[in-house]
Write a structure and sequence with these properties.
The chain contains 20 helices and two strands. The chain has 510 residues and is mainly α. It folds into two domains: 389 residues, MFS general substrate transporter like domains (Growth Hormone, Chain: A, Up-down Bundle); 55 residues. It is globular.
């Protein structure tokens, strides 16, 4: 390893460097959820088609997932600090470009450019934490802060978006990134050490292409199945087949290489594998619950965008507190108990929604959010196991795999739980007499009502049929309850698996 090694940094500089890394992470994670609040205003201004709206939402995660492995490998060779600074710059420039966006197509291009920058930033923050904090106990505490900020960003994104849209146009949801990234560049140049792998091996261009194509195809196919809540989608199956073939080819190339682009041998370490599964499981619940509950708060409970953001504060606070407490708590109870226990908390939050016995109200939703947020504290222990289970020269690989697990976890959560919610919503709504009456008179509008709660409320208001809106809200509430039961059961299975995988007596402080 060349560059400034971690031990040469003073304690104060190490924690100042962590502040830079986590502050930039906050911007990235906020950006993932803030768009959900800004999209209606953006749509009213730019008039995108339904397909363009989907691309505005999806293109960021598609580009991000496709480039994580390649950018991490380039950072190992070129310099992780350089890669991070370039990522900051790209994120800032892309955010400024929104001032010139006069079409949905340009917004899609900007979101793709943001994905390029995000893929440079996210795994690099983790690999630099691994390099800077060489003491395992201190690194676990640092990763606790990192996990707290990660969960905080995802939860407060809607709140920040709501505040901005109360006073400014939708452009502000992008422009807020600019000053924050400029500060991160200045502080990063001064505080962060350079780090690279001394002998990373030859660049595998074919492997990089295979990982790009495979991950984009995988994430896109999962999203398609989730959006349409159906399996009879030839294009999605074709993309899934492409993903399976290219990722299998990529895996074979990595396993046969002495110095692979991505060291899949890391999965031989049970602690590392358990951390990856826990990270995937935590985001599976968090992202899906946020998406569904935000819709429930606004369209069923009647909250404005800003009020919905305020009501998500409990999940943000619980997530931050649990992430900070997880490392010291693991010293008392053991990493295995805290990691699996966090997943059980998330499961309990989801099951609480499902077991409300058709009496779901704001109090139950807020309590469930606190439990889910507390459960994401396991991210801190999962990250510590991932990083301690990989050597320093593989920090880039470990960071890329962890971030990939977050991306896949969120995508799978939305696809699986979102599909279940959509299926239950449709089945309950089509049996309602108000919907059947609309179906006979306006079949096209009825089709839109059946597709989403947002469309149902808007159309019912336009037609002056509050009973239809109420029935759609009731159908969505029932679908949310069933989704909670299924999601909670899946999370319990993940908790059991993780508990079985982590060796007894495992500590993140050694």
């Amino acid at each position: 390893m060349t560059g400034i090694p971690g031990p040469e940094l003073s304690r104060g500089r190490r924690w100042a460097a962590l502040a830079v890394l986590t502050a930039s992470l906050l911007v990235i994670t906020m950006d993932m959820t803030i768009l959900n609040i800004a999209l209606p205003d953006m749509a009213a201004d730019l008039h995108p088609t339904s397909d363009q709206q989907l691309w505005i939402i999806d293109v960021y995660s598609l580009v991000l997932a496709g480039l994580l492995v390649s950018w991490a490998a380039i950072g190992d060779r070129w310099g992780r600090k350089r890669m991070l600074m370039l990522g900051y710059l790209i994120f800032a420039v892309a955010s400024v470009l929104v001032l010139f966006a006069d079409s949905a197509g340009m917004v899609i291009a900007i979101r793709a450019f943001l994905g390029v920058g995000g893929a440079m930033i996210m795994p690099t923050t983790l690999s630099l934490i691994r390099v800077i904090f060489t003491d395992a106990g201190e690194r676990a505490a640092a990763l606790g802060v990192w996990a707290a900020v990660s969960g905080l960003g995802a939860a407060v994104g809607p709140l920040v978006g709501g505040l901005l849209l109360e006073h400014f146009s939708w452009h502000a949801a992008f422009l807020i990134n600019v000053p924050l990234m400029l500060v991160a560049i200045i502080a990063g140049i001064w505080l962060l050490p350079e780090s690279r792998v001394s002998d990373p091996g030859r660049w595998d261009a074919l492997g990089a292409a295979l990982s790009l194509v495979g991950m984009v195809a995988l994430v896109w196919s999962i999203k398609q199945f989730g959006k349409y809540a159906a399996l009879d989608l030839p294009e999605a199956w074709m993309a899934l087949g492409v993903a399976a073939a290219t990722l299998a080819w990529f895996a074979v190339r990595c396993l046969r290489s002495d110095k692979p682009l991505l060291d899949l041998g890391l999965f031989e370490n049970r602690r590392f594998s358990a951390g990856i599964i826990a990270a995937l499981g935590s985001t599976f619940s968090l992202i899906a619950v946020l998406l569904l509950v935000v819709q429930w708060l606004q369209l069923v409970d009647g909250a404005t965008a800003l009020e919905a953001g305020v009501r998500l504060i409990p999940i943000a606070l619980a997530s931050a507190a649990a992430s900070m407490l997880a490392p010291p708590l693991s010293g008392l109870l053991g990493a295995r108990a805290v990691l699996a226990g966090g997943l059980v908390f998330s499961a309990a939050g989801m099951l609480l929604i499902g077991l409300s016995r058709q009496e779901l109200d704001l109090t139950i939703v807020l309590v469930s959010l606190v439990l889910v947020g507390a459960g994401t504290g396991s991210l801190a222990i999962g990250s510590a196991l991932i990083m301690s289970g990989s050597p320093e020269e593989k920090a880039g690989n470990a960071g890329a795999l962890e971030e990939t697990s977050y991306e896949l976890g969120g995508t799978l959560g939305v696809a699986v739980l979102g599909s279940i919610s959509a299926l239950i919503y449709r089945s309950r709504l089509v049996a309602d007499e108000h919907f059947q009456a609309l179906q006979q008179v306006e079949p096209e509008l009825a089709g839109q009502v059946k597709e989403s709660l947002g469309a149902a409320v808007s159309i019912a208001d336009g037609l002056g049929q509050p009973e239809l809106a109420a029935k759609a809200g009731d159908a969505f509430t029932r679908s949310l309850e069933v989704t909670g039961l299924v999601g909670g059961a899946l999370m319990l299975l993940v908790a059991v698996l993780v508990f079985a995988m982590v060796p007894k007596g495992t500590s993140v402080a050694h």
